[in-house]
Amino acid sequence: MQVLEYRIRTAATDDLGAARAVMLDTVYHDFGTGYVPRWHGDIIDLGGAYLRPARHTLLVAVDGQDGTVAATAALDSRGPAHPPNPRWIADRFPSGGTAQLRRVYVRAEHRRRGLARRLVGELLDFAAADGGYEAVYLHTDPAVTGAEGFWRSLGKVVHDEREDSGASRVMHFEVPVRP
After folding, report:
1. How far is CA 26 from CA 54, 88, 176, in A?
2. What is the three-state SS of 37-63?
3. What does the pLDDT look like over 112-133, one tens digit per residue?
């Protein structure tokens, strides 16, 4: 069995096209929504969303064999917006004090190798080093294979919108802040 090596690092400007491709492939193929500007605008301007703001970051996992970007993960200081999220979720996780995990996406052929867990660990280290985050938040679509189980293994569900009448299928999680 061949062991694949991956290098996780902060994305550079030269990585943005490949990172964007991973993200767009995910929203088209895994989510089935395609690109929706109000949900995915950060994907188009990754530099403005994650590289330039001091408290934000974008990580990439690079395949050690061919140098391609196999996975992405991002963190920013924007809490969940209302709408579309419930008001109490936005109030519980305010911008500035909340590190929001975003775009934790792994290409299908690189899954089940621990990349997402490693990337999230690096994001949590980044948030801890910042020192100003009081909470770590994320939302996920449990219809995506493996998403619900993965996030349950790292955090706690604070709200499952599938339980709400007429609501979306989004699940909201809080992940413990590292000391």
Report:
1. 26, 29, 26
2. HHHHHHHHCHHHHHHCCCCCEEEEEEE
3. 999 999 999 999 999 999 999 9
Q: What pLDDT digit, counting tens, does each position of 129-170 carry?
A: 999 999 999 999 998 989 999 999 999 999 999 998 776 789
* 137-168 as b/e: b if 16+ CB within 10 A: bbbbebeeeebbebbeebbeebbebeeeeeee
- The verdict on pTM exceeding 0.85 is yes
- Residue 99 has phi, psi (to 5 degrees) of -95, 115
**Alpha helix stretches (DSSP H) within 9-132:** 16-25, 37-44, 46, 87-92, 115-130
Q: Are 11 and 51 spatial neighbours (Cβ–Cβ below 8 Å)?
A: yes
Q: Which sign does the torsion angle of CA 171, 32, 14, 116 carry?
A: positive
Distance CA 144, CA 112 (A): 14
CA angle 161, 135, 62 (to 5 degrees): 90
Structure tokens at 143: 């219809």
33 and 25 Cβ atoms separated by less than 8 Å: no
**Cα–Cα distance, 83 to 57 (Å, whole number):** 24
27, containing H or E segment:
none
Residue 162 DSSP label: G
Bridge partners, residue 138, by sequence? 173
